Every structure is written in structure tokens, then in C-alpha cells.
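Appendix B. Raw example, untouched.
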Amino acid sequence: MKVTTFAIKIWRWASLLFVIGALVWTYSLFPEMVAVDFADSGLAERYVDKEHVFYIVMGLFLVNNVLITGIARHIPNVDPMNLPILKRKEWAQHRSELNEHLTNWLFCLVSVINTIVGFSLLALATINSTSYKMDVFDFSWLYYASLALVLFVFLLPLRLLWPPVHDDKL
């Protein structure tokens, strides 16, 4: 197992526990009506029941962790000539490396979505809390961090543009 594969697996499981913990903790802290949309002044414009927030996040969690992970588990069964990558013939000769790249990418996508959802829940709980005097603008960093993570994940498949190097050329 490569170091990157190990790191992505650790990140996926840590993000899974993080989003579950954030969901349970924030559900216990949320008021009955949770402010989810804010005006330019920072005042809440739209409220949602905390049960609806829970079910929306749980639905996203299940789609993310079951559907995308299920797709990742079926990558080795797909014919490499049917995959939407360039230089399929070269990658077909190195099937184990191709499988590792694609499954790592999908697991990394799952980890990024879990991480963004977890931090968003914590920010939403803090904004709706009466204990803290923080407003929605104090969490603008979350938007930029999420954007950077998503950009990172969608740049990872660029590695598939170059076929693997044969062992005799190393």
C-alpha cells in the first residue's frame, strides 16, 4: 500500500467520524428553528426546522458515503477501455495502478465532502448559538477552504493524462 492510499483511507475514516460527531453534537445544540440563510447585513432571513437540517445532512451523508464509495469499489470490475480517460491502452497495461488512482480519487472526493459538511455544521451551530457572539461573516474562511479542497480534488485526475512509466525506464 502506498503512502497516499494509506493517507486517503485515514482521511476518509476520520472525516466519516467527524461528520457523524458534528451531526450529533450540532443537533443537540440547534434551536428548534435554525437560521440557514443570511442577508448582506448578517441577519437571518430563512429558518428551517432542526429535524429538516438533520435529514438533509443525513441524506447527503448516505449518498456520499454509500453511493460514491460503492462506485469506487466497482472500479476494478470496469473494462479500462470503457473508462473516460486518455491513453486507455497504456493504462490498461497497468491496471492495478489505474485502479489505485481512480479509487483514491473517489475516496478523496468522499473525504472532501465529509470534511466540508462537518465544518459547515459546526459553523452553523456556532452561528445559531446564544453562547457565542459570532456572526456569519466570521466563517467566510470556510467558503475559501471548501473551494480549495474541491479544486484540489478535481485536479487530482490530471495525473491520468500521463501514462505510467515502465519499470525498465526507471
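End of appendix B.
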